[in-house]
Amino acid sequence: MKQIRRWQRILILSLLSISVFAPLIFVSNRLKSITPVGRREFIEELSKSRFRTNDLRLSAIEHEDGEGLKGPRLMLFKDGDFNSLVRDNSSDQSDGGNNHKNKEEQVIVSQKMTVSSDEKGQILPTVNQLTNKTDFKPPLSKGEKNTRVQPNRATDVKIKEIRDKIIQAKAYLNFAPPGSNSQIVRELRGRTKELERSVGDATKDKDLSKGALRRVKPMENLLYKASRVFNNCPAIATKLRAMNYNTEEQVQAQKNQAAYLMQLAARTTPKGLHCLSMRLTSEYFSLDPEKRQMPNQQNYYDPNFNHYVVFSDNVLASSVVVNSTISSSKEPERIVFHVVTDSLNYPAISMWFLLNIQSRATIQILNIDDMDVLPPDYDQLLMKQNSNDPRFISPLNHARFYLPDIFPGLKKIVLFDHDVVVQRDLSRLWSIDMKGKVVGAVETCLEGESSFRSMSTFINFSDTWVAGKFSPRACTWAFGMNLIDLEEWRIRKLTSTYIKYFNLGTKRPLWKAGSLPIGWLTFYRQTLALDKRWHVMGLGRESGVKAVDIEQAAVIHYDGVMKPWLDIGKENYKRYWNTHVPYHHTYLQQCNLQA
């Protein structure tokens, strides 16, 4: 009898041993025989079957308490927030069934759910969608913030991910031998075209179609296969470096082309402005000579008035400068505005101000070509500046250095560029003590500001004459709005200094083309710093000037190529300029000039 029982125990133990070790041997043999991809799928299937009972338990709870359940509420949480939720749920379950009766059942729903288990066999879901019968708010641990994604906030995470995969697929295609038509190459080409068509010109995730999102997973699997085929790391690294270099070259070429087109657009005259000039010119020559005279001519050279001057060949630009100055002034009857232009634009600008006479102020139109202040060969000298930009070699750009000769009877004058808008009364400028200086200007030598300019950027300090006479660390300043003491100018004979420096610059490259660098040298140590609120720059370029600085400024300056009368002008700054343009005028409407 004892012998029989002993054999029975041996048999039972043997069967138990077989039942324990047989699955282990089976699984190990299968893992050895399958590929890495199959091994991963097999492990996933095994984990799913392991928790099938837990899934059934969840389903049972759902059917039992499912009456009146709301639809799943879409939420996203940080990993830290969700871990705190798991810890709280675990503690509640371990307290026993008493607490279970007092709380509603929480149902965890997700389209893509991965389930894990802790030592106690509790279900620890890792999901991105949670819901229950009430509005559920996950508890936050100390120092953490709720990072729930706002439904209206547009993101581009998926877009970037898809475009990265397209670039990766194209990289693998470049690794394939020329003329290769293998299956992996055909699949890469097909998947790449599909993704490119699906994405299109979308810039935000919300613009993506469902089809585009469905194509991401097949592309991921295909890229994994390609990584197993193209596994020559040195060759891949070399190819990627070459691709990176070519891309950088293309980007630089595009930047150069964009800069060239921007400069070209800045030099051209818009069709509407050309039309306006032609109409005004024909109207001017149809007038009788006695009707071409401006009123209040007795005030032209009276030093008791506040005199302003602008050099311009643009009808609308000069009009905005004059109109904004007069409309902002508290005493417009004390203003005498001198508009200096060339013989080509003199009829159009004269006709414009004759049609729009400012009864409160005095306006004078001057033709620089009719004056004897400029040297006879001045045009030829300007051409030697080694610049093809007509803005830099125009006589109007350099005629400012002859102000004492143009206005011999005046003591002070305010000089404007024609791309400014006046927003405040400027009468306080005339009471500023110049302290023996010639030019009052806003400085541009503070590093970190958008208006920063350094002497060494525009002036050639490698020249021994320049290096011995000037300092590259000298503070720079800006044209645009300048208070000029003409009496001090005449005493110091600065026009002769300008001519001397200008002649030197025609013989060897001493500075960049334009009037600003030679202005720094001509008025070296002859400038008085004005408060920066008098003159705010940067509205004609990518400067990031603040709106509060613009609103507080007395004069705003559209320096740069993005002028407000051009299509390339910055839209958010154009409104300050458009306020002073009479778009209701008949000529402007006929020439299709609109805000």
From TrEMBL:
Its EC number is 2.4.1.-. It comes from the Eukaryota. Keywords: Cell wall biogenesis/degradation, Glycoprotein, Glycosyltransferase, Golgi apparatus, Membrane, Signal-anchor, Transferase, Transmembrane, Transmembrane helix. It is a single-pass type II membrane protein. InterPro entries: GAUT (IPR029993), Glyco_trans_8 (IPR002495). Belongs to the glycosyltransferase 8 family. This is Hexosyltransferase. It comes from Arabidopsis suecica.
